[in-house]
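hey so i finally got around to running the thing on that chain from the lab meeting. sorry it took forever, my laptop kept dying and i had to restart like 3 times. anyway pasting the input first so we r on the same page abt which one it is
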Amino acid sequence: MASRENTTKDFEKMKRIALVIMAAALLAPSCKKKDTLLADNIENAKTQIGALMQVAEQGDTIRIPSSIGKDGKLSFVPIDDWVSGFFAGELWYMYELTGDEMWADHARKHTEILDSVQHLKWHHDVGFMIYDSYGKGIEAKGIEEYKPVVVETAKSLSTRFRPGAGIIQSWDADKGWQALRGWKCPVIIDNMMNLELLFKATEFSGDSTFFKIAVSHADQTMKNHFRDDYSCYHVVDYDPETGEVRGRCTAQGYADESAWARGQAWALYGYATAYEYTGYDRYLQQAENVANFLFSNKNMPEDLIPYWDFDDPKIPDTYRDASAGAVIASAMYELYKITGKKDYKAKADKMMETLSSPAFRAEPGQNCNFILMHSVASLPHGNGIDVPLNYADYYFLEALLRRSKLK
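ok and heres what got predicted. didnt touch it at all, straight out
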């Protein structure tokens, strides 16, 4: 017969085991479940972006993949093209999503071919080009020698600031197709996306000039670019000396008074970012107002990936724009992080589920190895219609990374 002492010991042991099991059961619901959408997309991106990277690095010159041309073949862009920084940014995002140093090694190569862009002064898109390459290298790996490049680029961008109007001029109006429009000082909503470079330049240099220029531009854009329903014009033309608005129109949308989808996406993302760097409530309110316009719009599809323009009369028999969807999804994750409003995350999650479906995500080895199909660059110019775009993939990967960091 077992002694009373042994029986007591067995009882205590069994009680401890039971308590451990109960604790595990109580904790289980709070443990973070595996994000299968995230894991699946990372594996897919390894295949697609990896293959695209190999093609881009063939031969003695590193090339920048951009889209699929009208001939159905992979197209590349020069380093002074506005989309030149996105592929490098994709590689930095792949490093952050996987932790594999291989991606960082290749990202460095694709970033550093853009070195001369820091001195480019003839258009405003250097924020896209440098912060989405060098800036992402700083974020991912803390590369100190990249910071002076960001600051120098901010100096170049600042040469386009027009104090009389309080804005950064987007395009020069004396050459190219822009010269045919009769503009003096065109500013496009896309320019909101270049302000992060200026905010970061102040952070890196201590020079508040860049911060002040960014705030002035954001304020003037908020004042002059938006309609009462918080949709925005694509282009506002200013008198650079007086700041008078000479006209409001579009360059890439359906019509002057229409809501070009990617323009609305730039506005949403741009003001959410401006709030992150300034803490100014007016920017957060603007971002939320734009989000409300987007998701309450009668022409927003049920799956939440917008048509290329919300006012195209051919809806639903017209093109979708996955690039606009990816930008919006990324911005909505950021708004959720800022505000904690669960509906923002739900919207972003649904958009990512749609973009990850066969309707928008290409099969491995297809689509010239771009991740997303069905984007629109500029329908009025007959450029990049229903094709993959490198910036669609960039913001899709960014949305994945932002989703992965949410608690």
